[in-house]
Write a structure and sequence with these properties.
Blueprint (H helix, E strand, L loop, with lengths): L9 H18 L5 H6 L7 H16 L3 E11 L4 E2 L5 E4 L8 E2 L16 E5 L7 E11 L5 H11 L4 E2 L1 H12 L4 E3 L1 E2 L16 E2 L1 H7 L16 E4 L4 H15 L8 E4 L3 E3 L14 H6 L4 H10 L7 E3 L1 H36 L33 H11 L1 H48 L12 H14 L35 E11 L7 E6 L6 E5 L7 H4 L3 E5 L5 E3 L2 E3 L2 E2 L1 E3 L4 E3 L12 E2 L17 H6 L2 E3 L5 E3 L2 E2 L1 E2 L3 E2 L12
Parallel strand pairs: 7-12, 11-12, 13-14
Antiparallel strand pairs: 1-2, 1-6, 3-4, 3-5, 6-8, 9-10, 15-16, 15-18, 16-17, 18-21, 19-20, 22-23, 24-28, 25-26, 26-27, 28-29
Helix pairs in contact: 3-6, 3-7, 4-7, 5-7, 6-7
Organism: Heligmosomoides polygyrus
InterPro entries: aa-tRNA-synth_I_CS, Met-tRNA_ligase_1, Methionyl/Leucyl_tRNA_Synth, MetRS_Zn, NA-bd_OB-fold, Rossmann-like_a/b/a_fold, tRNA-bd_dom
Catalytic activity: tRNA(Met) + L-methionine + ATP = L-methionyl-tRNA(Met) + AMP + diphosphate
């Protein structure tokens, strides 16, 4: 089953559909198909509903469920609670302005929809409101037997759990099993069989997995469905959630013991997205006119067995072309082999091999019609490939093209300004010379005026700034921001680089969990001002609370303040970040709160507040990362604390800083 809420894209297809289809073709030869056709399995039949509700009731009766109220986004215009993927907004971690309600495509972090800043309904673009709704939770923490089950399955010498499936499930268990919501506010699905919850349905982790066993209700086939093929983001549900529901039901169900998982298939250098029209979806693949077997060939060739892979139109065309040549060579080789084989048989005195029939018999079914033969692998013309790339590139491709065009225009403008500046200087010098000659001839006395070079002005401004009060030695409080502005190059003020960021050392003087969000901390951070700033960070799942206390951090101080679950955040803690792991960037223990973090040779000229519409932070963040030595760099230039020591990541290397 493809676990999607829209037309499946190529990643959905290879993850859990095409892989399962190949396995089914291997496991079910034609002579065995009829028995399987007898087992008509649909998740809409009464048996399925009955078993799903039976498991739900047994979990409830055995004390593994409880009710609790949670915050959800409700669109008044659409008159419904919004699923996570139907909400977009600003990422609370990296400030990406088009993050979804379940995950940010920019930093890869998982998000609760209510954590988004400035959320919008993806359907009507109106701002949804936070409402409370009562739901039923499954006590995963009370079903620790699943840990023993997983460990025993993995430890088997002939285990059928792929390595990435093992890693994902172990990560879930290591992070601690907690209560998880298993109901939703939807109008379709399997109804919750408990009074008071008539308007809610069971969530997929209970219901959808029940279809695996629903056909056993009338047919006596014990332990038939034992193998699960699932894509990356469903492994934890197959390997942890579903076994927990089976163990909690105490009904001796066969628990999944074969899990084959894939990583993610991306599209070109971005991700598939229906909302952004990025990527090839099932209906698009059919419209291209490319044969289904060609799609199957390339998707299986690029199947993300142990690491992420990407669908690329250029590589697709190349692989198809190479395979076309391979098939042609094989045909030639076969013809040559027939001739060589005949010669060998002649030399051995065996014109015909007795063990094989010269003409193997084959029968066609009555009414069979032979179709028109046509080549399967045909050359993809470059122009057609370029057309498909443009058609399915979506907004990501448009943005890349816009950036490329802007870069080209900026280069042209720079060249024009450079040439124009030289021409203007020459013209001004010539006019000045003519004026002096004319005035001298008329008897007008000439008074020499000293030339003012921009570098001289810059030096004077710098000296004046140095006389202004700054942070006192030893980390005293700043009374006023006194960043030196280098005006020797006026264009630098408008350039988007790391110098526009107000990065400072801060010390967390107090940290506690957000009262209304399980994944957020609320910190009070001293950054060298008269009072600490309040900062909200999504670090609960990555840094223990005791390690947050009295800790030195680097803080981005000139982001626009934003409310996160009712608490205004006035800065952002800088972290080395991957989807699986987040580390707070470290500084020298002797650094004092308020110490600026700079990046020579880029001039430190922080904006008072970064304009969200100009996307200054988003642009700078693309090149802000941890290098191979563990140092924070921007375009390979190290970030320096107080102009001397480097900012480092504890263990992560070659990852972005968010």
């Amino acid at each position: 089953l493809p676990y999607v809420n829209n037309v499946p894209h190529l990643g959905n297809i290879i993850g859990c559909v095409l892989s399962a289809d190949v396995f089914a073709r291997y496991a079910c030869p034609r002579i065995f198909r009829e028995p399987y056709r007898f087992l008509i399995i649909f998740t809409t039949n009464l048996h399925f509903f009955r078993i799903a509700q039976d498991i739900f009731l047994k979990l409830h009766e055995n004390g593994y469920t409880s009710s609790s109220s949670i915050d959800q986004l409700h669109c008044q215009n659409c008159d419904k609670f919004l699923a996570d993927r139907f909400v977009t907004g600003i990422c609370p971690f990296c400030a990406y302005d088009d993050a979804r309600g379940d995950q940010c495509d920019s930093c890869g972090r998982l998000i609760n929809a209510v954590e988004l800043k400035s959320p919008k309904c993806h359907i009507c673009r109106q701002e949804p409101k936070v409402r409370q709704s009562t739901h039923i939770f499954l006590h995963l923490d009370a079903l620790q037997d699943v840990r023993k089950y997983v460990e025993s399955e993995i430890a088997k010498p002939n285990t059928r759990w792929s390595s990435n499936a093992v890693a994902i499930v172990k990560g879930w268990i290591k992070g601690g099993l907690e209560k998880r919501c298993i109901t939703r506010d939807l109008k379709w699905g399997t109804a919750v069989p408990i009074p008071g919850y008539e308007n809610k349905v069971c969530v997929l982790c209970v219901v959808r997995r029940s279809d695996r066993i629903s056909f056993n209700y009338e047919v006596s086939l014990v332990q038939f469905h034992r193998k699960g093929l699932s894509c990356n983001d469903n492994v934890a549900f197959h390997g942890v959630m579903f076994p927990c529901t089976q163990l909690g039901a105490r009904d001796n169900y066969t628990i999944v013991n074969h899990v084959c998982a894939t990583e993610y298939l991306n599209y070109e250098d971005t991700k598939f997205s229906k909302s952004r029209n990025t990527g090839v979806f099932g209906d698009n693949a059919k419209e291209t006119g490319i044969e289904a077997d060609v799609w199957r060939f390339y998707l299986l060739y690029m199947r993300p067995e142990s690491q992420d892979t990407s669908f690329s139109w250029d590589d697709f065309a190349l692989k198809v072309r190479c395979y076309e040549i391979y098939v042609y060579v094989e045909c030639l080789r076969f013809q040559l082999f027939v001739q060589v084989s005949a010669r060998i048989r002649s030399q051995c005195g065996a014109e015909r091999l007795p063990v094989f029939s010269a003409y193997p018999m084959s029968y066609l079914k009555p009414g069979h019609k032979i179709g028109t033969p046509k080549p399967l692998f045909v050359k993809m013309e470059s122009a057609k490939v370029a057309e498909w790339k443009a058609k399915f590139g979506g907004s990501a491709l448009t943005n890349d093209l816009d950036k490329k065009r802007k870069g080209e225009l900026c280069n042209r403008l720079d060249n024009c300004l450079l040439n124009g500046s030289e021409s203007c200087h020459s013209m001004i010098d010539a006019i000045q010379k003519q004026l002096v000659e004319a005035e001298t001839a008329a008897g007008i006395k000439q008074v020499p005026v000293p030339s003012i070079h921009p570098a001289t002005v810059a030096t004077e401004v710098k000296q004046a700034n140095e006389k202004k009060p700054t942070a006192a030695p030893g980390g005293g409080k700043k009374t006023e921001s006194t960043s030196v502005v280098d005006i020797s190059d006026a264009a630098a003020d408008d350039a988007v680089d790391v110098g526009r960021l107000d990065l400072r050392v801060g010390r967390i003087v107090k940290c506690e969990k957000h009262p209304d969000a399980d994944a957020l901390y609320v910190e009070q951070i001293d950054i060298g001002e008269s009072a600490p700033r309040t900062v909200v960070s999504g670090l609960v799942r990555h840094v223990p609370l005791d390690q947050m206390q009295n800790r030195l951090v680097v803080v981005l101080c000139n982001l626009k303040p934003a409310k996160m679950r009712g608490v205004e955040s006035r800065a952002m803690v800088m972290c080395a970040s991957t989807p699986e792991k987040v580390e707070i960037m470290e500084v020298d223990p002797s650094a004092q709160p308020g110490t600026p973090v700079t990046c020579p040779p880029y001039t430190h000229r922080p904006d008072a507040q970064l304009n969200p519409k100009k996307k200054i932070w988003e642009t700078v963040a693309e090149d802000l990362k941890v290098n191979a030595d563990g140092y924070a760099v921007w375009k390979d230039c190290p970030l320096l604390v107080g102009g001397s020591t480097k900012m480092t990541a504890p263990t992560l290397r070659g990852v972005p800083i968010k």
